[in-house]
TrEMBL record:
Organism: Haloarcula salinisoli
InterPro entries for this protein: Alkaline_phosphatase_core_sf
The protein's name: Uncharacterized protein
Gene3D superfamilies on file: Alkaline Phosphatase, subunit A (3.40.720.10)
C-alpha cells in the first residue's frame, strides 16, 4: 500500500489531538497489524487460502465464522473432509479485495447478503444477487438466511453452468438466532454460537439442493467486542489484523456431482444502498 506523504501530513495535522484517529488509523493497522502478521508463532503464516483457486462448484461463506466455533456447533459428520484454513483477511472488505477485486470471474455467480461484495468487487462476476439491496429486513437489521437460501437455489437453477458463491451474513450480528441479552463476554459468545446454529440448517438445505461439490467456509473470524479490546481498537474484526480468532476459518467439504463450468461475460453490480447497509450492519 503506497502512502501519499502530503496527504498523510495533512491528516496528522487535522487529527493530531484525536485519540480515536491515532488508534484506528495508526496503532491498529500499522502497530498491531504489522506485529500480528510478522509474529513467528502465527499459525499457517504465508499459507492463506485463495478461494477461487480451490476445487469446488459451490462455495458457502458464513460471515465472521470462527473455525473453533464452527467445530463446536456444526454436525461435523455431515462433511466428507474438514480442516481449518487461514483467510486472506480479517474483515469482509479486505477478504473481498484480496480474493476478487480487479479480477474477472465470468464463470461465477455470487449470491451475497454482504454489501462489500458489490462495493469491492462489483465488476468481477458474471452476476451478483445483491440481497443486501433487495432482501434486507429493516426490523432485523440484516438479510435473513431464508432469503439467502432461496436466492442460492434459484441461482443454481438459472445458471447451471456457473460456479456459485453464497454469502450469508450469519453468524455476524445482529444475532437473529438468539434471545440472549448480551451483557458480557460469556453472553456474547453464547448468542454468537446460537446464531451460528441458527444459520446452519439453511446451509444444509443448499447443499442438499445443489448435489455438487460444496465447501463451507468464512470470510474471517471474530474477536469479542468489549472492554480493553474496544479501548485498543482491536475488538470485532478489524482489517489487517492476524489474530488466530480473526483469520482461522472453517473449510468443510461435501463431495458431490460436478458441474460443467462455462465462462460468460462480466456484469457490473447495480445496487444503490451500499453505504446505508454498511451503516445498518455496523461497518460504518
Amino acid at each position: 500500500m503506497s502512502i501519499d506523504p502530503q496527504h498523510a501530513l495533512s491528516e496528522v495535522r487535522k487529527n493530531y489531538g484525536s485519540f480515536n484517529w491515532w488508534r484506528n488509523r495508526v496503532v491498529v493497522p500499522f502497530v498491531f497489524g504489522t506485529a500480528t502478521r510478522l509474529h513467528p508463532g502465527y499459525p499457517g503464516y504465508g499459507e492463506a487460502v485463495h478461494v477461487m483457486e480451490e476445487d469446488w462448484d459451490t462455495l458457502i461463506v458464513l460471515d465472521a465464522c470462527r473455525a473453533d466455533y464452527f467445530e463446536q456447533v456444526a454436525e461435523m459428520d455431515r462433511y466428507d473432509e474438514y480442516s481449518s484454513r487461514i483467510s486472506l483477511g480479517s474483515h469482509s472488505s479486505e477478504w473481498t479485495r484480496r480474493n476478487f477485486q480487479g479480477k474477472r470471474f465470468g464463470d461465477t455467480v455470487y449470491v451475497s447478503a454482504n454489501p462489500h461484495t458489490s462495493l469491492e468487487a462489483g465488476d468481477s462476476f458474471h452476476h451478483i444477487y445483491e440481497l443486501w439491496e433487495t432482501d434486507f429486513d429493516d426490523e432485523a437489521g440484516v438479510v435473513p438466511p431464508d432469503a439467502v437460501r432461496d436466492a442460492a437455489i434459484e441461482a443454481h437453477e438459472q445458471y447451471p453452468d456457473k460456479r456459485l458463491i453464497v454469502h450469508f451474513m450469519q453468524p455476524h450480528g445482529p444475532f437473529l438466532g438468539s434471545d440472549v441479552q448480551v451483557t458480557d463476554e460469556s453472553s456474547y459468545w453464547q448468542a454468537y454460537a446460537e446464531n451460528l446454529d441458527y444459520v446452519l440448517p439453511f446451509v444444509h438445505e443448499i447443499i442438499d439442493a445443489v448435489h455438487e461439490k460444496t465447501v463451507v467456509t468464512a470470510d474471517h473470524g471474530q474477536a469479542y467486542t468489549g472492554g480493553i479490546k474496544d479501548y485498543l481498537g482491536i475488538g470485532g474484526h478489524k482489517p489487517r489484523l492476524r489474530f488466530p480468532s480473526l483469520v482461522e476459518v472453517p473449510w468443510a467439504v461435501v463431495e458431490g456431482d460436478r458441474r460443467e463450468i462455462v465462462a460468460g461475460e462480466i456484469n457490473r453490480a447495480e445496487g444503490e444502498q451500499v453505504q446505508d447497509r454498511l451503516k445498518d450492519l455496523g461497518y460504518l
